[in-house]
Design brief:
The complex is a heterodimer of chains A (563) and B (202).
Chain A lengths: L5 H10 L7 H6 L4 H30 L9 H35 L8 H20 L21 H4 L11 H29 L12 H32 L13 H35 L6 H14 L15 H29 L8 H23 L2 H7 L3 H31 L1 E2 L2 H27 L16 H31 L1 E2 L34 H6 L5 H4 L3
Antiparallel strand pairs in A: 1-2
Helix pairs in contact in A: 3-4, 3-5, 3-16, 4-5, 4-7, 4-9, 4-14, 5-7, 7-8, 8-9, 8-10, 9-10, 9-11, 9-12, 9-14, 10-11, 11-12, 12-14, 12-15, 14-15, 15-16
Chain B lengths: L1 E4 L2 E4 L11 H31 L9 H12 L1 H12 L3 H31 L8 H32 L9 H31 L1
Antiparallel strand pairs in B: 1-2
The chains are: A mainly alpha (563), B mainly alpha (202).
Chain lengths: 563, 202
Amino acid sequence: MATRTIGESIRLTKRRKSFSESYIGEWIMTIDHKKLGIMYMVTAFFFFLVGGTEALLVRTQLAVPDGKVLTAEIYNQLFTMHGTTMIFLFVMPMLTGFGNYVVPLMIGARDMAFPRMNAFGYWVVLFGGLFLSASFLFGQAPNAGWFNYAPLNELTTGCGATAVSCTTGLNTDFWALGILMLGVSSIAGSLNFVVTILKMRAPGMTINRMPLFTWMTLITAFLLLFSLPSVTAASILLLLDRHIGTHFYQAGAGGDPLLWQHLFWSFGHPEVYILILPAFGMISEILPVFSRKPIFGYTFIAWSGVAIGFLSFTVWAHHMFAVGLPMVAQAFFATSTTLIAIPTAVKIFNWIATIYGGKVRFTASMMFAVGFIAMFLIGGLNGAALAVVPFDYQVTDTYFVISHLHYVLFGGTVFAVFGGIFYWFPKISGRLLNERLGKWQFWLMLVGVNLTFFPMHILGLLGMPRRVYTYAGNLGWNELNLLSTIGAFIIAVSIMVFVWNFIVTLRSGEKAGDDPWDAYTLEWDTSSPPKAYNFEVIPTVRSRRPFYDKKNPDIADWKTATH
Amino acid sequence: MSYARGEQVGTIDEHGHEGGRSINWWGMIFFIASEALIFANFIAAYLYLEIRNGNWQLPSELTYPLINTGILLASSIPARFAGAAIVKGNQRNLKIGLFFTALMGAIFLGGQVYEYTGLFGNHFTPSATIFGSSFFMLTGFHGLHVTVGVLFLVICLLRSLRGDFTAKNHFAVQAAEMYWHFVDGVWIVVFSLVYLLPLIRG
């Protein structure tokens, strides 16, 4: 290879910018945690719109009895992909995106521990998501529900004469391979979080001074590391059954469909907490700032999160009460499920006590946070009801369960996510989202959520099973279903208000400045948006509210508080 | 701060104190922990099916698997030898250690293929019975890990021939060694479960 003179090299660099310096290249090649965080969040929001559209189609079909909008097969694909998309492609990447953007800033680090693995995780999520969604192009989207029970997930050829119902297409292969890909990404992401949080904190930031969002992200990362292997193993066995001819889930050949349920739910229940713990963390950041008080009972919030993390591995079979478990097992899982309500309730009391007596500023972010507490409480209470085995027998696989899970996931996580977006958007973009539009969005969403999901409680008690593609007109379910569908469209309007707000703000939003909320944690102690290196000088931490200390040196926490 | 250069991701401590293990080491530990849990799930599935289906007896002799196990477990010794060598900057012993570890791993894989061939000859296949499904799942998944481990070692060996590693800069070797010990350790559990448990039950 010929060597170039320095002059030639300079001319070459002048002639064209390299790909990684172009605008698009800068994003594609980036390993910066902030850019990747934004990419995660934008991708997740895209899939939120996809999953939402699927939900609207489902609700349209169910609006009136004997609906003719969708065929049964298309309906199966839509509700399966709605669940799969919302959980794996919206909530998980959205929370990962927040963690990516906010956590290194919060702990005073310059990046994640493994920046390139971080980028790897993002790209696998993107392509895994596109892979899963591409199944629609083949008309063979996954159609056996987001938990894909055996034997519904088995191939007809492998099922033998004993199977009740089996599929023939590629549907479940899309699901299993997609989940394996997303699992790889989540493992990469979560071990990155664990190492970053444990090893890269600013000097003085002991474990007991970490912001609570960081705490919850850490616990979530551990849950992912230790629970994802279950669904990975389950999916591998499923693919072997379907393509190699093994018999793991085939009762007729010595296998057991319940094995799938055990493996899936021993991932699936920690997963539920993976979806909600970071939301707890966001709420625990937002409430104190807008109540002008430190969080009430920091230690209790942090350690009740740890307790939830441990207990979440002991409750999986409460999804399986109706399959005929031994009595002892039912008693155990009912008890552990009731037990896990305690650390969750502890948090609710802490949040209420944080607001109590504070100088509350009702910004859009704060309204979502307060809305979260109310909605999550409803979801938590009807969840505790489901832990009672005889009651569960009655309502399992009815709309009561749908109502419960949407109150915790939509009323809970989605409200927290919007609270988080309104809170951190100024840091990310340098502009404040419009408060007026934000409040419109909040009230529309609050009405929409309750109108959609509250009637489902009653529908469930009236015996409407989940996953039916239509129902007869004489069962007394008509009005409630129609209400529910109207509610779903109100939610859609509220999301459109947000999209409008987002576009308007990016074009001409009010400039935010570095610290628009007079906040407490380190991410606000740098420019908006932060420079690539985050902080000019790494701050030294002396209490749980380092930025508050810096702004109020005379009454700094480390002078007045004991921790 | 962290910086990425080549494979080496390191940290510059801005406050001048060195603290324990490297960030890479921690990353590898959590990766292996997650891998171990995949095995735990497979083992749980194996036991679940074994208990439901009763006494599983392999239609083959124990001799070959025993020899194979001996070779695999012994291969941890040259792996440690290589890891200890590069810490002192000893390139020659690094190469010798990596070479013999990879070789012994390859022999184990060869033995496994030989064993599988015999079992297939006896009509013991993944699709024949649920025991076949479970046996090939567990040993096959472990075999896959050994394959990955051997590739890992071979890549390290090729890089060491190029002189990539120094006494201070050799995380790939350390990671390969950690992974190899893990693969060895898992085999003890898998072997006990698949080959020894039926003996005890008789």
